[in-house]
């Protein structure tokens, strides 16, 4: 498929923002998180969302919300106007090629997969009405960090629709696709790094004598409050850190231990390694 010409956008029907049907190809954790967030926030009713899965246990997250689950992917594509590919990056090409005869230019296509660039997505499907969206599982609570890139034939209305959808379940950044791997590493994989840090801080609290439940709640709230301070005050995290760390005090003693353990270098290395792996997966 490499080098295949992508057809220009023919005359297409605009997406009806009040009545479009949304389909998920892939019914894993990310798809479930986004779908749940959209339903809970009242953006798209469950009656207009569809997916496909054969495993009864995996269907429950969707059926419990009133979302219809078909047995086969092609039924989702036939039913829906906006198609979100939420499968693992390793099988994305195979899935798109299998469904390609049904993926007309009248359907707006999205990919949630990291790594695969718009050029490849457009070549696989044969047209450029594609949007890359990189959200996080925090969509389920309306706090996702989402990055989006428009394909060469995605219309302005298409972009507005997707920005509205994902803006309802978090914050959206539109940016040049060349930044996508790094953005996914910080905004996407970065959530896992934070979970580890919360867990480690809670373990430290337990080691210092706190009950497990209290230690975990305190650690989670500390991260939540710190993140809110960065977002709402606009101050640099270093400045906010200095406001907490008094000379010769308890906080600076703890920061000293983090520095001895190369905490910041490890976090930076994790982001760089994730970015590199994302780039490799897109080759």
UniProtKB/TrEMBL annotation:
GO terms for molecular function: pyrroline-5-carboxylate reductase activity. The keyword Metal-binding does not apply. Pathway: Amino-acid biosynthesis; L-proline biosynthesis; L-proline from L-glutamate 5-semialdehyde: step 1/1. It comes from the Eukaryota. NADP(+) binds at residues 25-30, 86-89. InterPro entries: 6-PGluconate_DH-like_C_sf, NAD(P)-bd_dom_sf, P5C_Rdtase_cat_N, P5CR-like_CS, P5CR_dimer, Pyrroline-COOH_reductase. Transmembrane segments: none annotated. It is found in: Cytoplasm. The keyword Cell inner membrane does not apply. Residues 177-281 form the Pyrroline-5-carboxylate reductase dimerisation domain. PANTHER family: PYRROLINE-5-CARBOXYLATE REDUCTASE (PTHR11645), PYRROLINE-5-CARBOXYLATE REDUCTASE 3 (PTHR11645:SF0). GO terms for cellular component: cytoplasm. Belongs to the pyrroline-5-carboxylate reductase family. Residues 21-115 form the Pyrroline-5-carboxylate reductase catalytic N-terminal domain. Its main location: cytoplasm. This is Pyrroline-5-carboxylate reductase.
